[in-house]
Amino acid sequence: MTDVETPDGLGSRGARFWTATLEAYELSDSETPLLLEACRTLDNLDALAQAVADHGAMTVGSMGQPVVNPALTEARGQRIVLHRLLAALALPDEDGEAIPTGAQQRGKASAAKRWAGHTSERALKAVGK
Questions:
Q1: Could you report the per-residue pLDDT of 61-79, keeping only the tens digit for each?
Q2: How far is CA 93 from CA 43, 72, 73, in A?
Q3: Alpha carbon distance 104, 93 (integer Å)
Q4: Rounded distance, CA 9 to CA 22, Å?
Q5: What letter would DSSP give residue 98?
């Protein structure tokens, strides 16, 4: 285990992710800023979750009407940012695979749909048809 210096300004979740990531992986100079932004995003998500916990999922709008807490909308955006940052880092998961990007996931789903029901000639020969 190496001694990893945590950047100033990170909250507890961001600092834990920073330390755990740098202890597990050796990042390039171009990947380190991505990691820092991912850590900040994790901290932002924690702050937004706390805002929802403090004020509830609904709040009062400008005309007195109930509206969804803006922290929920912002949290959704922060989750998207986090996914993109982690995909850009391409850190492997437990199986050694990198987190797929949204485009990769859509492409895989599209290919599966396109080829659903098709059987290759090789597969047919294997079963004797």
A1: 999 999 999 999 999 999 9
A2: 21, 27, 28
A3: 16
A4: 17
A5: B
- Look at the chain and count its residues: 129
Rounded-to-integer distance, Cα 125 and Cα 120, Å: 9
- The answer, yes or no, to whether residue 80 has pLDDT greater than 90, is yes
pTM equals: 0.73
Buried b (16+ CB within 10 A) or exposed e, 58-68: eeeeeeeeeee
Is the separation of the CB atoms in 43 and 14 below 8 Å? yes
Could you tell me where the DSSP H helices lie in the chain? 12-24, 32-55, 70-89, 102-115, 121-126
CA–CA distance from 105 to each of 16, 76, 86, 99, 109 (Å)? 28, 19, 14, 10, 6
Map out the domains of the chain as residue ranges.
12-99
What is the SS3 assignment for 124? helix
Instruction: Decide: 18 and 36 in contact? Cβ < 8 Å.
Output: yes
Residue 102 identity? G
CB 85 within 8 A of CB 37: yes
